[in-house]
Amino acid sequence: MTDLHTLQNAHWQVGILPQTGAGIAFGRVRYSGNWLDLLRPTAEADYENSSNNSSFIMMPWANRIRDGLLKIGHQSYQLEITKDDGTARHGDVRKRPWHVAESDETHIRMTFDSRDFEDVNFPFYFSAEAIYHLEADAFIWTLSLTNEDDQPFPAGFGYHPYFVRTAQMPLLEIPTEQEFVLTDAMATGAPQPISDVVDFRQLRGLEDGVDINHLLTGRDMTKPIRLVYPQWHTELQMQADPIFKQVVVYTDMHTPSVAVEPQTNANDGFNLYEQGIAEAGVFVLQPGETASGTVRLTTQPYEGS
């Protein structure tokens, strides 16, 4: 049976799935005295399927690596690939069990160590920590990655949350100036000025019937990402640490949701990094070094303009 940990305060009710990659099963906020799903809720039958969770962790890379071929200098490592698109996708940890180090009504801390598994899809040893906690109207996510190997390696991480999409969509504001041109969901070069279809620098809605799967960058770190639900008079703000240089926006047409994914590296960022593209967002960890980042979700009333 899946181990579900529920965190709750006066503003949030969230479900955490340690056995499914430290993912999220649901994220609800108070509205008119009831709990309202803002994160796309997971059916109980899908608690063990990270792809159908409300959100999952991507690590030690985010999104895709072309052909699963990890190139580091003069070395190349062949990673296992997914059958549907032939890439190494979304890291390795989202389908692994994580250890619950501590938890209470509003907080949970989980750990992961790749040395505990013989088949991790990455050629270097690493450990990780995931913390979720509630603080007043904020739902806070903190992720850390540590190099446990005896040599440096490039890495990245991110979150893949799905937010509910209603008849009025939500309205989006994403303060980014650039986007990567994607082919088969992977970046092909340095970022370009943002296109009209994903220019969300001003609050606006998604277009009906238009599929979006875009990688945005050049984020204004002083401004939050905003998702506004006018019919519920509710605004969700996402504030992500500067390490999360990229934001993927993806409209899932099969389920009523939109993914807004903060991630450190670009799609196929490892190959961009090897090409010397500075915006790739890949970081290199020395032995014993840790990289970490926090994403903060807060809600507030929205009355419109």
Automatic annotation (TrEMBL):
<dbReference type="InterPro" id="IPR014718">
    <property type="entry name" value="GH-type_carb-bd"/>
</dbReference>
<protein>
    <submittedName>
        <fullName>Aldose epimerase</fullName>
    </submittedName>
</protein>
<dbReference type="Pfam" id="PF01263">
    <property type="entry name" value="Aldose_epim"/>
</dbReference>
<dbReference type="InterPro" id="IPR008183">
    <property type="entry name" value="Aldose_1/G6P_1-epimerase"/>
</dbReference>
<dbReference type="GO" id="GO:0030246">
    <property type="term" value="F:carbohydrate binding"/>
</dbReference>
<dbReference type="GO" id="GO:0016853">
    <property type="term" value="F:isomerase activity"/>
</dbReference>
<dbReference type="InterPro" id="IPR011013">
    <property type="entry name" value="Gal_mutarotase_sf_dom"/>
</dbReference>
<dbReference type="GO" id="GO:0005975">
    <property type="term" value="P:carbohydrate metabolic process"/>
</dbReference>
